[in-house]
Amino acid sequence: MPHPIADRHLTELVDTWEYDLLADALPWSAWENRDTMRDELAAWLVHHAPARLRADGASPDLQERIRLLGLPETAR
Fold it and tell me: Which of 13, 33, 35, 16 is nearest to 24 (CA)?
């Protein structure tokens, strides 16, 4: 459930992670299932993060970069 503190943390994490995710990489090390985890994280962010980022006052640029995660890498 969205909450202002959780939204702030989400904004901070997304701001840190988005460059890795846009490069189709995980923002942390993983031994197994990297592609699956990255795809699931990106899908969750594309679906759930936009409203929470707006509520937190995230920059339009950050919101746009999250929208781009929903596109194939070649279309970004």
Answer: 35
If one compares 1 and 60, the residue with the highest pLDDT of the two is 60
CA distances, 13 to each of 22, 42, 69, 73 (Å): 14, 13, 15, 21
> Taking the alpha carbons of 66, 73, 43, 15 in that order, is the dihedral positive or negative?
negative
Do 21 and 42 form a contact (C-beta atoms < 8 A)? yes
Backbone angles phi, psi at 67, to 5 degrees: -60, -40
What's the Cα-to-Cα distance from 58 to each of 11, 14, 24, 54, 68, rounded to whole Å?
A: 7, 10, 22, 6, 15
Kindly report whether the global pTM for this prediction surpasses the value 0.70.
Answer: yes
Q: What six digits make up the tokens of 17?
A: 């992670």
